[in-house]
Amino acid sequence: MLQYLLHTPILLVPILVLVAALIFAVLKKLLKAAVILLIAGGLYVLLMRYLGGGM
């Protein structure tokens, strides 16, 4: 089946577009999560520095 798809690129293009869209969606979600964690970590450090952590 893979050889058939490689010999008929008209069928291969939509599959590749779908895979690329799925990968982009996953990376976008991971990037959003990383940004949220970075902001939360920065706020935590600022709170501990200026309000004191009792340490």
Q: Care to give the gist of this entry?
A:
Helices cover 89% and strands 0% of the residues.
In round numbers, the mean pLDDT is: 87
Largest sheet, in brief, is: none
Global Rg = 22 Å
The percent of residues in helical segments reads over 70%
Ranges where pLDDT stays below 50 over 5 or more residues in a row are: none
Task: Summarize the helix and strand pattern as letters.
Answer: HH
Strand content: under 5%
Q: How would you summarize the topology of this molecule?
A:
Blueprint: H1 2-7, H2 9-51
Describe the structure.
By secondary structure, the protein is mainly α. It is 89% helix and 0% strand. It has two helices and no strands. The protein has helices at 2-7, 9-51. The longest helix is centred in the middle third of the chain and has 43 residues, at 9-51. The chain is rod-shaped, with a radius of gyration of 22 Å. It starts with a helix and ends with a helix. The mean pLDDT is 87.
Keywords:
55 residues; mainly alpha; rod-shaped
